[in-house]
Amino acid sequence: MTLETDKKRIIALVGPTAVGKTVYAIEISKRLGCEIVSCDSMQIYKGMDIGSAKPTAEELAQVPHHLVDFADPREDFSVASYQKFAREAIDDIFSRGLTPLVTGGTGLYLYSIIFDMDFSAPPVHDPRYRNKLYEIAENEGPEALHKLLVEKDPAAASRIHPNNVKRVVRALEAAENGEGMEDFATQLRPWKGYEADTICLTRDRSELYERIDRRAAKLFDMGLIDEVKKLMASGLTADDISMKGIGYKEVIAYLNGEYDLDEAVRLVQRNSRRYAKRQLTWFRRTPGIKWYNISEYQSDEDCLEDIITWLQRK
Length: 314
Fold this sequence. Notes:
Elements lengths: L8 E6 L6 H12 L1 E5 L18 H6 L2 E2 L12 H17 L3 E6 L2 H8 L12 H14 L1 H11 L1 H6 L5 H12 L18 E8 L2 H17 L2 H10 L14 H8 L5 H24 L5 E4 L6 H12 L3
Parallel strand pairs: 1-4, 1-5, 2-3, 2-4, 5-6
């Protein structure tokens, strides 16, 4: 069964970490004739399987997946790169008469393909000022640079992680020139290439946090520490963007003797819960999103039936 529509449509299935997106995405894809396009900023990297909770080989075999195991973790894979390759994958799926199903939890990746967003760098008004900002980051640390942004543009600072030095620099340049940095969530124009039916899965907080804690502990049982050791043996370090993901950065610190294994597990659990909270905040700002609280259903099958009925409404 495939979706009937006059316009090109994609399905976007998003939600916080550990909510259960993978199982739902695969089942919807099998029923509606979809191929999956990942929008997960960690699962895109080759060799980062356990810490990113990448779909298993059995799950990947059930439905074609795009942009999983795609990028070299030694490269700084940007959202602009993701936008390019994801739209190419979507066009390829359309060309074969199928429906793209975009799934993951990286809000900015999702926005890059369902909204008209230009990630090209703004012109450099003063190269000396840019160099000065990078010197601050180098000599005093990213936190010092981010603190400067808090003073100059608090709204932009609240949206940008301190470790994202490039975006902090861009925001400071914009603030210096009195431009301000565009808030993607309030300046959104739908992408004209297709329509998007966007669904967010959620659960009651206590249930979601229990699932997060359980999965975080399971990652260590599955061999997360050995995975990190292997990645570091290949030349990756804590300075690589790919290794700053939750699970990886905590294990690196554990391997460096900063704390014991119990503390590493606790930190992965805590940081994953905090990440889930940020994800939900992001998706609440997304216009036109359809919410499904899995906790309110007797079974996954009941929730799936409601989702599919909604998707087939047109």
